[in-house]
Every structure is written in structure tokens, then in C-alpha cells.
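Record type: monomer structure entry
Structure origin: computed from sequence
Chain ID: A
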Amino acid sequence: MNETDFRNALAAFATKSADELEMSDRLDEIGVDSISVFELMIQIEDTVGEHATKIDEDMTTVADLYDHVQKAAALDNA
């Protein structure tokens, strides 16, 4: 999943549009809570694999979440 696709998927749960999302945005500041993160991971699980649903509570920014998605995809393709 590339960054553009990720931003588009995340925007459905955020208070910002995909174009407005910055990688440095804090998830809590854009209206994304742990339930939203879990729902996002379920939504994109088919794209990035089942490892995406294993959520790390240390994820605080859009970049942290994107990195998690990338690592999950790599694990699934290993």
C-alpha cells in the first residue's frame, strides 16, 4: 500500500481530507482513536495482510501508523 492509498483510507476516519493529512499529524488531533485504527486495519487487511490488525499502542502519528502498515505488509509477503 503506497502513501497515497494509505492517506485515502485513513481520511475516512479522520477530521482531515487525504490531501490535508500530514505524516507528522498526531492521530488524536485528527480524530483517529484506537477504535478507528482497528477499523482501518480491518478495512485494509486484505491489502496488507493479517498482521495489520496487531496494533501497537505506541502509534501516535500518521507516520507511525503508516510504518505499521508497511511492516505488516512485509511480514505478510515474507
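Annotation 1: The chain has one domain: 3-77.
Annotation 2: The domain at 3-77 is CATH 1.10.1200.10 (Non-ribosomal Peptide Synthetase Peptidyl Carrier Protein; Chain A).
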